[in-house]
Amino acid sequence: MNHKYYNVHTHKKPQINNEVCIRNAYLTPIERFEPNYFLSTGLHPWHVASISAKELMSRLEKNCNNKQVKAIGEIGLDKFATDYERQKSYFDMQINFAAQRHYPVILHQVKSVEGVGSVIKDFHEPIILHGFNGHVSVWEQLNRNGKTYISVGSNCLNPSAKLLQTLKDIPLKNLFLETDNAAVLVQTVYEKIAGIREIETSKLMEEMATNFKSVFKTNI
Ligand SMILES: [Zn+2]
């Protein structure tokens, strides 16, 4: 029996003993992180003004030489952030990089379903729509490659009617759980979502273990 709490996207190190997480490293050099958890690396759409395209690609490349890195992310498009054209160009570059190197992508998307859809239309690696809070039809629309997941975090603790319905409708094989930046333990997210699905927490843990190992090619 696998009794680990898989946390697909967090900005913190593991908060409980049996947590397996992917921590967001941004473009920070990998050696600055402890070796006992996984990382994702990428330029967040909020930070596009801070770096040149050349510097972005060289830091991405360097970080991906480290086996601790399991995904590119979080990357994406955000209508509420500045410089949307530059966001698109950097997002496109990072998607191409992930495609060439066969990395899954952790995606940040705010009011940009169409923009994101056009960039990922030929992307064949797994995509995780992190911090998902929308209707299941948004997932359906973006799931062109059949390998697209939603990841839900602290929003589930006080879900909108829309998210509550999504959590009932989404196939478990397309779900991940996360804590992102929230002051919440991953265990609390698992317990809440198991309750919404009317299944045992241990069953949810098993399902998430299967998804995690298959997407990130890990054996823990
Ligand atoms: Zn995040």
Short synopsis of the structure:
The protein contains 7 helices and 8 strands. The chain is of the alpha/beta class.
Sum up the structure in keywords.
TIM Barrel, binds zinc ion, 8 strands, 7 helices
Structural class by sheet pairing and helices: alpha/beta
Order of strands in the sheet with most strands: 1-2-3-4-5-6-7-8
Q: Which ligands appear in the coordinates?
A: zinc ion
Query: CATH superfamily assignment?
Result: Metal-dependent hydrolases
DSSP strand count: 8
CATH topology, what is it called?
TIM Barrel
Q: How would you spell out the order of helices and strands?
A: EEEHEHEHEHEHEHH
Instruction: Give helix % range.
Output: 25-40%
Unreliable segments of 5+ consecutive residues: none
Query: In whole angstroms, how far apart are the ends?
Result: 12 Å
β-strand amount: 15-25%
Give the tally of structural domains: 1
How would a textbook summarize the main sheet?
Answer: 8 strands, parallel
Shape: globular
Mean pLDDT across the residues is 97
The helix tally amounts to: 7
Radius of gyration: 16 Å
Question: Mind telling me the CATH class?
Answer: Alpha Beta
